[in-house]
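Summary of Year 1 activities. Much of the first year was spent building the evaluation harness for sequence design. The harness presents a backbone, in tokenized form, and records the residue chosen at every position. We chose the following record to illustrate the format because it has been used consistently in internal testing since the harness was completed.
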């Protein structure tokens, strides 16, 4: 466990659908109508109420986030964040990925949520290079803590060993553990 200005940061290797936090973040697409990867896992584990609410929302621009129930999962809410498809790095992908994390945290704060779990957004089907995505994710979270506060615990939930090791190395160096 790491701390940054009294906020606890955790690294977890596993399935984000099992996290008992206020909100888990989904790596969604613009339609919010589900898909594979973590999106598929969340809809499968949470059940149809999530999709029903997503249909009413009617989509989400890249870099933004929307909130629904978590249905049958142990978390209270799902924050559906839409990361960018990686197209080589010259189409503002870094700013869009940063915004997806930052806007998820802003939405959590609006709902007065204290604990949030993130997957490695855009690093699967959307092809974002894992190392750069990890840096952006951690920077967005630390910037939010500096500027906005309100969050008490942030979990980075990594499905694969590769991402886990990356996040561990980055957090060790940034928080000089
Ligand atoms: N828990 C945590 N992380 C997971 C899980 C899970 N159950 N399943 C997959 N992951 C990880 C992947 O290993 C990857 O590192 O989530 C990360 C993001 O991968 P994707 O789910 O493919 O998401 P992304 O790259 O953002 O692509 C989004 O894929 O599933 C579709 O509908 C989704 O169109 C959207 C696109």
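For this record, the design step produced the sequence shown next.
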């Amino acid at each position: 466990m790491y701390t940054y200005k009294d906020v606890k940061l955790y690294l977890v290797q596993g399935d984000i659908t099992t996290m008992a936090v206020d909100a888990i973040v989904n790596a969604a697409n613009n339609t919010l109508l589900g898909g594979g990867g973590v999106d598929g896992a969340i809809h499968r584990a949470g059940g149809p109420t999530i999709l029903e609410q997503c249909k009413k929302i009617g989509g989400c621009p890249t870099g933004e986030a929307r909130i629904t129930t978590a249905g049958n999962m142990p978390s209270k809410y799902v924050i559906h964040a839409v990361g960018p498809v990686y197209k080589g790095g010259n189409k503002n992908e870094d700013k869009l990925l940063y915004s997806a994390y930052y806007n998820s945290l802003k939405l959590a704060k609006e709902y007065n949520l204290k604990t949030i779990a993130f997957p490695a957004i855009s690093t699967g089907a959307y092809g974002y290079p894992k190392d750069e995505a990890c840096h952006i994710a951690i920077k967005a979270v630390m910037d939010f803590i500096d500027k906005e506060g309100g969050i008490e615990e942030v979990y980075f939930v990594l499905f694969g060993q590769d991402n886990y090791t990356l996040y561990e190395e980055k957090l060790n160096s940034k928080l000089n553990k």
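The chain has five helices and seven strands. Quantitative recovery figures across the full test set are reported in Table 2.
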